[in-house]
């Protein structure tokens, strides 16, 4: 690990139950005259926007709501949202929801603030500014998108491509645990595992691992693993929900600076081709990738074992790493979601295409602690078919 590093994150974070009702005042602070709030139809139907919209009405501030976000946001939906912002004359964007809504909001703020073609900016450092002011409000404890400079898009050819730029950090991240209490157990589980993956992959990242990201990843994993079972069994537990949101935030801050690896690389084709939610995709491939990486990541897994299993002692790094993998495997196994690729519609015949597409994620694979070949990817997919 190099002691020479750069660390960036969202400049302002508000973590407070009920904070969503004060979004209008935050928009006013940023000088907004007309806000576009980007979300998905499920959140609108669930009534989660009510307090926020009441706050805008009370303040006499203009707001337009775009509710057509789709999971793994397709390029055309992002472009439609950008056009909606232009038509509304929006001068501030709010992303309100899971990773798909927040990723869409990032790109809308960018495309409207500085007109550019979305396909032209896929990659690292290609986006141009300025962007519109941006506030992110996560309603799941998973993606950490409120503190990352990354937005993932599904292209018309079903590939997952990323826009990576410091311009995508929002001005403010608002964490309101009351927005997460109604999440179903399956969604809670998948998004929680997603956040754990961010922490683990940041801690084991080969490229930009650093002391700050390590500290954040470790604390994130402690919070997430300690509260996961509680939020599955008692979704209304505000303290546990807040801890999960904070764990997701810290994991997001970590992997924004020490980027993720093979778990994400193998998960993306599942989302692109089979529309498997991102958190579930990560959960499906997590444990076999951990086992695959163990020869290269054993000392790091041993350090993470000390964080999540503090009452246990181990005779060696190998024993500690095995205990860490077993701990995560047992947690994933008891979660209320699919556990095999067949359960999400994948067949044996699909595996070579998935492995081939995983190899296209070199932006991620270079961060993995162990080199992954196409044959390795195929074996991992086959192990969870």
Automatic annotation (TrEMBL):
Keywords, ordered alphabetically: NAD, Oxidoreductase
InterPro entries associated with the record: ADH_Fe/GldA, ADH_Fe_C, ADH_Fe_CS, Alcohol_dehydrogenase_Fe
Catalysed reactions, as listed in the record: a secondary alcohol + NAD(+) = a ketone + NADH + H(+); a primary alcohol + NAD(+) = an aldehyde + NADH + H(+)
Coiled coil: none
Cofactor: Fe cation
Ranges for domain Alcohol dehydrogenase iron-type/glycerol dehydrogenase GldA: 11-176
Any one GO molecular function term: metal ion binding
Recorded family membership: Belongs to the iron-containing alcohol dehydrogenase family.
Name of the protein: Alcohol dehydrogenase 2
Species of the source: Insolitispirillum peregrinum
The organism's taxonomic lineage, starting at the top: Bacteria, Pseudomonadati, Pseudomonadota, Alphaproteobacteria, Rhodospirillales
């Amino acid at each position: 690990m190099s002691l020479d590093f750069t660390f960036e994150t969202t400049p302002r974070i508000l973590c407070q139950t009920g904070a969503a009702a004060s979004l209008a005042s935050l928009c006013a602070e940023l000088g907004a005259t007309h806000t576009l709030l980007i979300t998905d139809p499920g959140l609108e139907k669930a009534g989660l926007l009510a307090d926020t919209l009441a706050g805008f009405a009370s303040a006499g501030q203009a707001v337009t709501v775009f509710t057509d976000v789709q999971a793994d946001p397709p390029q055309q939906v992002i472009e439609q949202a950008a056009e909606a912002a232009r038509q509304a004359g929006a001068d501030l964007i709010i992303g309100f929801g899971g990773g798909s809504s927040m990723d869409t909001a990032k790109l809308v703020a960018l495309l409207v603030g500085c007109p550019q073609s979305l396909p032209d900016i896929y990659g690292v450092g290609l986006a141009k500014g300025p962007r519109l002011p941006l506030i992110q409000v996560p309603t799941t404890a998973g993606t950490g998108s409120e503190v990352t400079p990354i937005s993932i898009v599904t292209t018309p050819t079903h590939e997952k491509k990323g826009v990576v730029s410091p311009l995508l950090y929002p001005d403010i991240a608002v964490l309101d645990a009351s927005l997460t209490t109604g999440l179903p157990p399956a969604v809670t589980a998948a998004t929680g595992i997603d956040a754990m993956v961010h922490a683990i992959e940041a801690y084991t990242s080969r490229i930009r691992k650093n002391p700050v990201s390590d500290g954040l990843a470790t604390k994130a994993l402690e919070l997430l693993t300690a509260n996961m079972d509680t939020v599955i069994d008692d979704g209304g537990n505000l303290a546990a929900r807040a801890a999960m949101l904070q764990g997701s935030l810290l994991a997001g801050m970590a992997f924004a600076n020490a980027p993720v690896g093979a778990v994400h690389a193998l998960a993306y084709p599942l989302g692109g081709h089979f529309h498997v939610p991102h958190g579930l995709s990560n959960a499906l491939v997590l444990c076999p990738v951990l086992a695959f990486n163990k020869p290269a990541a054993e000392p790091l897994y041993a350090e993470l074992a000390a964080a999540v299993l503090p009452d246990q002692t181990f005779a060696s790094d190998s024993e500690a790493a095995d205990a860490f993998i077993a701990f995560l495997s047992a947690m994933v196994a008891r979660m209320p979601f699919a556990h095999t690729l067949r359960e999400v519609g994948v067949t044996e015949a699909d595996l070579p295409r998935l492995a081939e597409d995983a190899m296209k994620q070199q932006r991620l694979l270079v961060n993995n602690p162990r080199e992954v070949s196409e044959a390795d990817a195929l074996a991992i997919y086959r192990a969870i078919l």
